[in-house]
Write a structure and sequence with these properties.
- It is a single chain.
- By secondary structure, the protein is α/β, with parallel strands linked by helices.
- It has 3 domains: 227 residues, no CATH class; 199 residues, no CATH class; 167 residues, no CATH class.
- The protein has a 6-stranded mixed sheet with strand order 1-10-3-4-2-9.
- 37% of the residues are buried.
């Protein structure tokens, strides 16, 4: 059990150096945790102590380190009298503290005094040791070859550690490291040097840990899984890495094979986190990727929550399947290597699915265009299937066919037919696995999707009658087509259609549409406030009930390039068309089309509504029999 004795950071870093082992998660703290930590320091009075938590470590024997290639640069520290330790629990807090100490010490010269000692001596105690340019080792850091190792040395501690051409790859974790450093730089910049020195004293003397050294007999991998479930939970992807490295130590192979597999696992996770965090503005979720890869790689046959995690961590990648002859699943070097190779290849496909315009995607313009549609509409249950097609390097033409089939199903079945969001999920998940394993070909896959997009009379899931019922209900209870949850997508698709006809550049950015409220992006041409004389002359004699139908009918709804001010929104149609700043004539392609009308009355609203429904028919290859009725008339 942990000792009851609390120790300071100065005592912990007394002739010890620390490494975060390769099976550990990367740096996961974000702004909320950093703010909490900073608040603790601000509230801590100088000379008082603050309990910072448990720090669990395991000593690394010099004999073991001598046999490890990744430890060779640090062996001289043993000769100098240092002891080496793996950090099993508490690395998030300790990493944060070291980043802050570096930021603090960077504010002083090496020969300055802080806390009654030279800054260069504090650097030697907490950051790195060096001897005459011959040896240099880091007191705290990651094991060599860890995805964050070189980044921590070069970008966080600002040391020259590797050749300039060998730039460390950035990942989700390195992004967090960088943000933590920027966070503390911003905080320290506002402080006087006396305040910074006081902060340093609080950190090294006031923060106290319960230091616990793991007994050699304990299973360090199991200890890691158990302990790291406190605080910010480990993702399933992080747990899986730890599990696979553990399994690499017990597979019935020689040490060279075991070490080779362990290195491969680390390299794969380096690639996985590089691609998950490649788009810094929109990083991808660990476990969503892992779940969709599981659906594709293994045969999907479950519906309970987190079935993928249960299968991977409790049924498949377990010691019993390696050590027992009677195991349900046979898992060895070959199975682990094939699985992680698939992860490394699939994460690239996964990234480009969500970021098709990024350099390196190798998609042609039309494939990029159709992948971007899923960002707006949603992928439904097709993520594993599309990922598989990209992994299998299908030709662009056939990939495009697949994307069109998937998009058509999602729009017609969910947005139009109003089916439950899990409709046919299991079917498509199994199809993704069968296709990935080569049990069915891509043409068969596309044919199946298309058949399920047919109308109900042909045993498909598309039913236009349900759309009539849904829109009718929206008119009775809400705001007609204005309440349709796919309205933005539909009107944007129409905008793209008009843009292609005009052969022009984009006038509307989907990101703006997505972020803004519907009233800022979709305008009622005939307005809710119809007090302007123009509207009174044309709609004044119409019943209130009829006005509401006209107001929220499809033909009266217009995708605008920028919000109209409230005053212009309620002006007459002739003013709306021609206003110099925000008039329709100078707006989106949809606005320009509407600006061609001479009048805006019930007749034009119905006429434009029919035109939009005709576009829907052509765009999604369907038939809408009674358009006037669907429009609410």
């Amino acid at each position: 059990m942990p000792s009851n004795t609390l120790v300071t950071l100065a005592e912990i870093f007394n002739n010890r150096f620390f490494r975060i082992p390769d099976y550990q998660r990367g740096y996961a703290w974000q702004e909320r945790q950093l703010e909490d930590f900073w608040e603790d320091l601000e509230n801590l009075k100088l000379g008082r102590s603050h309990y910072t938590g448990l720090l669990t470590i395991k000593e690394v024997d010099k004999k073991d380190a001598t046999n490890l290639e990744k430890w060779k640069d640090d062996l001289w520290l043993f000769d100098k009298g240092f002891k080496a330790y793996y950090i099993i629990d508490g690395q998030q807090r300790l990493t944060t503290i070291i980043i802050l100490l570096h930021v603090i010490l960077s504010k002083f010269n090496d020969d300055d005094l802080i806390n009654y000692d030279y800054v260069k001596n504090h650097k030697a105690k907490y950051l790195y040791q060096e001897v005459g340019g011959k040896y240099k080792s880091y007191i705290f850091g990651y094991e060599k070859d860890d995805p964050s190792d070189e980044f921590f040395k070069t970008e966080i501690l600002e040391q020259e550690s590797i050749p300039s051409h060998n730039v460390p790859k950035e990942t989700l974790y390195t992004a967090n490291l960088r943000k933590a450093k920027e966070f503390f730089i911003e905080k320290i910049t506002k402080m006087e040097k006396e305040q910074i020195e006081e902060l340093f004293k609080k950190i090294v003397n006031g923060l106290k840990f319960n230091l616990y050294e793991i007994d050699d007999e304990l299973d360090v991998f199991v200890t890691f899984e158990t302990m790291n479930n406190r605080g910010k939970p480990l993702s399933k992807l992080e747990l899986l890495k730890n599990r696979l490295i553990y399994l690499s130590t017990i597979i019935p192979e020689n040490e060279d094979i075991k070490n080779k597999l362990r290195k491969e696992i680390n390299e794969v996770w380096k690639t996985v986190y590089e691609y998950l965090g490649k788009n810094k503005d929109s990083p991808l979720d660990d476990d969503e990727f892992l779940e969709n890869h599981w659906i594709m790689y293994f045969k999907y046959e479950r519906r309970e929550a987190e079935a993928y995690a249960k299968f991977l961590l409790e049924e498949y990648f377990i010691g019993k399947n390696i050590l027992s002859q009677n195991a349900k699943h046979t898992v060895g070097y070959k199975e682990i290597e094939e699985y992680i190779s698939s992860l490394a290849e699939s994460v690239k496909a996964w990234f480009y699915m969500f970021n098709p315009e990024y350099q390196g995607s190798n998609f042609d313009e039309e494939v990029i265009e159709w992948l971007q549609k899923f960002e707006r509409l949603g992928f439904g249950a097709f993520k594993p299937l599309i990922m598989a097609a990209i992994v299998k390097k299908e030709k662009q033409g056939i990939l495009l066919e697949l994307l069109k089939a998937c998009e058509r199903f999602v729009f017609l079945v969910f947005s139009v037919s109003r089916r439950p969001s899990n409709t046919q999920n299991s079917n498509f998940f199994r199809l993704a696995s069968e296709y990935y394993k080569g049990e069915v070909d891509i043409k068969t896959v596309i044919d199946r999707i298309n058949s399920l997009s047919d109308d109900v009379d042909n045993e498909g899931w598309y039913d236009i009658k349900k759309f009539y019922d849904y829109i009718d209900e929206q008119f009775r209870k809400y705001k007609g087509f204005y309440s349709w949850n796919a309205l933005k997508y539909f009107l944007y698709e129409y905008e793209l259609y008009l843009q292609k006809q005009a052969k022009g550049d984009s006038k509307v950015d989907w990101r703006n549409i997505k972020q803004k409220r519907i009233e800022e992006t979709i305008e009622h041409i005939y307005p809710q406030d119809d007090s302007d004389p123009y509207w009174q002359q044309r709609f004044g004699e119409i019943t209130q009930e009829k006005k509401q139908i006209l107001l929220h009918s499809l033909g009266n709804l217009l995708l605008v390039s920028k919000p109209k001010n409230s005053q212009l929104q309620n002006k007459g149609f002739d003013t709306k068309k021609k206003d110099g700043n925000t008039g329709y004539f100078n707006g989106s392609y949809s606005e320009i089309e509407v600006a061609q009308y001479n009048e805006w009355t019930e007749k034009e609203i119905i006429e434009r509504g029919k035109k939009l429904l005709e576009f829907m028919e052509k765009r999604w290859n369907i038939e809408i029999p009674d358009k006037i009725k669907l429009l609410g008339f």
